Amino acid sequence: MFTLFQRDDCHLCDQALIVLAQARVTDLESVFIDDAPDLESRYGARVPVLRDSQGRELDWPFDVASVAAWRAP
């Protein structure tokens, strides 16, 4: 499972979703940080951020190749 931390009306977040679709990341949950003060303080300047089930995080900018390399065991 992957989580994408993002904001409403965020063009970089929209771009990240396109990259993740191209990278065939299908088990994706979006979490919007706008109304969550704890997430806002952690991710505010960093969104979009992709996190895996092990807690590893990949900050934007990323592309298909960097997502594939990050996902590799």
How is this structure best summarized?
The protein has helices at 11-22, 37-43, 64-71; strands spanning 2-6, 28-32, 49-52, 57-59. It is of the alpha+beta class and 73 residues long.
The stretches of 5 or more residues where confidence is low (pLDDT under 50) are none
- Strand pairing plus helix content: what structural class? alpha+beta
For the record, give the distance between the C-alpha atoms at the N and C termini, rounded to a whole number: 15 Å
What is the overall pLDDT average?
96
Number of E strands = 4
CA-based shape: globular
Please give the share of residues in helix: 25-40%
Strand content: 15-25%
List the total number of helices: 3
Any overview of this molecule?
The protein is α+β, with helices and mostly antiparallel strands and 73 residues long. It is 37% helix and 23% strand. It has helices at residues 11-22, 37-43, 64-71, and strands at 2-6, 28-32, 49-52, 57-59. The chain has a four-stranded mixed β-sheet with strand order 2-1-3-4, covered by helices on one side.
